[in-house]
């Protein structure tokens, strides 16, 4: 019996030790498995959002193009239709806007890929940020007036030369103005405020539109974020715009924030350093995109009634 007890006790002690190690190992494996499952779930949800949003972004303009070409065909072949030229011009404009929207969607997808792979590069140059905003406000006036809105540019300095990527900051401002147009009420106001803070420039785009819920504010800069994801929503968009805006500002070394009250409007503020970067005289000359072309692309998902 003593032999049995001795032989029983020693293996039992070793078994306890091994069992504890096994338990710990299993717990670690379980945590890793759980983490892996959650990561795969997040990737699947992200891919689902991408598929749903991009399908809508491609399908809507393609449907408009098909409808516009059919209207042109009917207008050209039917002698009884009145105001043929007006209908053809309307169809051509619809096709052009849809092409711009498709271009915007493709640009956003490509830039998303570049940002997530750390391959998104900025082309810095010295520019007057005051003149930049004035030009953008002037070039946006057609859309502002057609939407029956007012826009004000408030600033306390005549000139401010800083280094930034001209095309990308134009894109940021136009995205914020575009959102303000989409979510403002007729007769509303959009205010662009520029403040020189010494080592940084702060720009605010504020509106008195429909605002956002507190819940949505927490995710507004996330990929594919849309407060209304239904296909009957009041404004179009892929949900990538503000994610790209935030990424561009951060690549400039700046930051962006938002405040909003549901039913009262929203305010987006971003700041970028007011540095002046030395640019080599022998560096390749930067060719900027035409501002009107950029506006047509960035405002392509705004559908206005004349």
Continuous helix count: 8
The CATH superfamily of the largest domain is known as: Histidine kinase-like ATPase, C-terminal domain
Strand order of the largest sheet: 2-4-5-7-6
The succession of helices and strands, N to C, reads: HHEHHEEHEEHHEEH
Total strand segments: 7
Shape: globular
Distance between the termini: 102 Å
Largest β sheet strand count, sense and barrel closure: 5 strands, mixed
Which structural category do the helix and sheet elements fall into? alpha+beta
Query: What is the typical, i.e. mean, pLDDT?
Result: 80
Strand content: 15-25%
The CATH class of the largest domain is identified as Alpha Beta
Q: Supply the number of structural domains.
A: 2
User: What is the CATH-assigned architecture of the largest domain?
Assistant: 2-Layer Sandwich
Radius of gyration: 28 Å
Report on this structure.
This protein has 306 residues and is of the alpha+beta class. It has 2 domains: 1-120, Signal transduction histidine kinase, dimerisation/phosphotransfer (DHp) domain (Helix Hairpins); 124-298, Heat Shock Protein 90, CATH 3.30.565.10. It has helices at 2-77, 84-116, 129-139, 141-146, 166-182, 214-217, 241-251, 291-298, and strands at 124-128, 150-155, 161-165, 189-196, 200-207, 255-261, 265-273. α1 (2-77) packs antiparallel against α2 and α5 packs across α8 (291-298). It is globular. 25% of the residues are buried.
């Amino acid at each position: 019996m003593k032999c049995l007890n001795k032989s029983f006790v020693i293996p039992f002690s070793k078994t306890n030790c091994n069992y504890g190690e096994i338990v710990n190992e299993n717990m670690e494996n379980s945590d890793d498995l759980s983490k892996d499952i959650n990561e795969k779930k997040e990737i699947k949800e992200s891919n689902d959002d991408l598929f749903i949003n991009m399908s809508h972004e491609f399908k809507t303009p393609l449907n408009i193009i098909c409808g516009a070409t059919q209207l042109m065909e009917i207008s050209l072949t039917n002698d009884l239709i009145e105001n043929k030229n007006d209908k053809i011009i309307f169809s051509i404009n619809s096709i052009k806007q849809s092409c711009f929207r498709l271009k915007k969607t493709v640009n956003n997808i490509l830039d998303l890929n570049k940002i997530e792979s750390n391959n998104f590069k900025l082309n810095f140059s010295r520019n007057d940020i005051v003149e930049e905003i004035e030009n953008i406000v002037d070039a946006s006036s057609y859309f502002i007036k057609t939407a029956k809105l007012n826009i004000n540019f408030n600033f306390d300095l005549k000139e401010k030369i800083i280094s930034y990527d001209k095309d990308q900051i134009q894109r940021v401002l136009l995205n914020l103005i575009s959102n303000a147009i989409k979510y403002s009420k007729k007769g509303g106001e959009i205010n662009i405020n520029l403040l020189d803070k010494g080592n940084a420039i702060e720009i605010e785009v504020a509106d008195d539109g429909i605002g956002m819920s507190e819940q949505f504010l927490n995710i507004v800069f996330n990929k594919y974020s849309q407060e209304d994801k239904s296909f009957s929503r009041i404004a179009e968009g892929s949900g990538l715009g503000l994610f790209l805006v935030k990424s561009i500002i951060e690549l400039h070394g700046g930051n962006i924030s938002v405040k909003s009250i549901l039913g009262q409007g929203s305010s987006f503020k971003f700041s970028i350093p007011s540095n002046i970067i030395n640019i080599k005289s022998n560096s390749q000359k930067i060719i900027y995109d035409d501002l009107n072309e950029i506006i047509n692309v960035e405002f392509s998902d705004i559908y206005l009634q004349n």
